[in-house]
């Protein structure tokens, strides 16, 4: 397998399921290392990078984003803990988060673990029939662990009731109170498109040199696809971008399309 991507180039990686597209991502991110050969970033073997620096330079937006049960602000700041409010605002604008944050357009969802546990227990038979006993037990175990944690405390909450105790210099402008909205367990208060846009804002605020999109819009409906794709298009500007996708519409503006088949390009 031999692929060369130049700086600020936008390329696509396509192929059948199981051909190695996600493995390519895993190797570049160093989720695991190659057995032979080498992966170079700016001519330097990725093994020679400090892992924190590498993952700051290379950001990944996945099909199913990870959203924590903290506020929208904290979820965005997870990308850069010392970001200013101005940076948060700019990232949320580029990622098309502003509208739903300002309108507080969130799903009605009881995110308390004990409420969810009670609901699951009440409908155990029906749920097991749909998702299976193993998956049911896994979800119950997860909720049980979450229930043991004080869900109101976030990454920056050192004082009860204060969700943002960053240095005052970082609070260089006021943010809309919608940023304080708790996202719920697994982002349950946000729609699929909203979760993806928050994840994009988190990526943008890191200012990565390389952006990888692994089926980033494939799980969304048509309306959300357009909003998220617009956010991604803005995030790609000035960055090397690698797009893994099945839909032709998401790769039509790429300068190159690499097709993986049986481990070869």
TrEMBL record:
Residues 1-265 form the ABC transporter domain. GO terms for cellular component: membrane. InterPro entries: AAA+_ATPase, ABC_transporter-like_ATP-bd, ABC_transporter-like_CS, P-loop_NTPase, Type_1_exporter. Keywords: ATP-binding, Nucleotide-binding. GO terms for molecular function: ATP binding; ATP hydrolysis activity; ATPase-coupled transmembrane transporter activity. It comes from the Eukaryota. Signal peptide: none annotated. PROSITE patterns: ABC_TRANSPORTER_1 (PS00211), ABC_TRANSPORTER_2 (PS50893). Pfam families: ABC_tran (PF00005). This is ABC transporter domain-containing protein. It comes from Strombidium inclinatum. The lineage of its organism: Eukaryota, Sar, Alveolata, Ciliophora, Intramacronucleata.
